[in-house]
Amino acid sequence: MTSLITAKTSDEEATNDLGTHQLFAAGPNADLARHELAFGRLSLERVDSSFISVLEASGLTGRGGAAFSSWRKMAATDQGRGGVFLAAKPVVVANGAEGEPLSFKDKTLLAHAPHLVLDGLLVAGRAVQASLLCIYTTQDSLPAVEAAVAARHDTRRVKVVPAPETFISGEASAVVNSISNGIALPMDSRQRLSEAGIKGRPTLVLNVETLAHIALIARHGAGWFRTAGSERDPGTRLVSLSGFCAEQVLEVEGDASLAGVLAEAGVDPADVQAVLVGGYHGRWVRPLDYRLSPTGPEDHVVRPGAGVIHVLPVTACGLDTTARIVSYLAAQSARQCGPCMFGLPAMSRVLDAIAHGDRDSGLVQELQRLGKLVGGRGACHHPDGTARLIGSALETFSDDVRAHLAGSCTRSTGRTP
């Protein structure tokens, strides 16, 4: 059975559900006293660069979307202090921007467990000998974060930075650009952030959920972390469920089955046409015989990305839904490169034409051609993610595509996202 915890977005609902699982063990809206009662006081005395080896043994991957090995990012930043950067102390950033419209797991985590995130930030900072720590998050989360920082004596080096609520504001280089220059746009730079980021210093950007897991690994060790999940995807992860179900955040074991997650969320498979996994840069899937894991055979695994699971009911038109998402993504362009400035609007127009009555049989081929043109050529991964979403829609809703091109739609256009 999939192990889950429901962390409802309202405080009243959360009170009934939190308190028995890993990330929310301190209960809803946990203050420092309740946090330390549940997890124990954090000790940094033994934390140094050797913690990177512990992180490697744990198998923790990033929970912000890209699923990079957390220890590799930390090690790269630690090594970035060598050579010409010998005198430059690193910066560690807790990224809670969560610009993905269907994601609210990070907001929930910062509301209910901000001290666990702060613990992880302090551990990461100690491991790479950082001189500056930042929490970058949206306006909604600022009060809880600022209150948590103010309640502690070990957070004097922590700077809280507001993040704009845009889709690309959480991209790592956009985070650095925003903190450094107040411009939350990706930087088209060949230099790695681990070598030169904020103020030219080696910079480590980690998602807030990743840091919460790091806090627990620092307390309990790599072996404890691996007691949940699977060999290829150890530990737990948070997922945001929305669409044709109650909005909720679940803590699920790594390698959990999608069907099991939906069942625990109270979703009847008979009501489900398809599921968008990974968010607006994710993938539509059906049937539901997939497992959520960042690695594994493509025919059995769907990558959870930022932990988004959006349920599309049988009554909704998947093409109409995807067309509206792509229209949003085209408008969220950083307008710094051709694929974003011209490619995404062009793809949006073609998909919109298919979704809304154009019978030109060449439209699908045109979409595929545009996808190849934008793929791998953007200043950031925004064009790639958008092309991936469109490709999955053409595959998953292939019957609907044929119906639309024949002049009919077998479903309503209920607007769920």
The low-confidence parts are: 1-5, 7-20, 81-86
Oligomer: single chain
Radius of gyration: 21 Å
Q: Describe the strand arrangement of the main beta sheet, using strand numbers.
A: 6-5-11-7-8
**Strand share of the residues?**
5-15%
The CATH superfamily title of the largest domain: NADH-ubiquinone oxidoreductase 51kDa subunit
> What is the mean pLDDT?
90
What is the molecular shape? Answer: globular
How many separate domains make up the residues? 2
CATH-defined architecture of the largest domain: 3-Layer(aba) Sandwich
Level-1 CATH class name of the largest domain:
Alpha Beta
| Tally of helical segments | 16
How many strand segments? 11
Q: What's the main sheet like? A: 5 strands, mixed
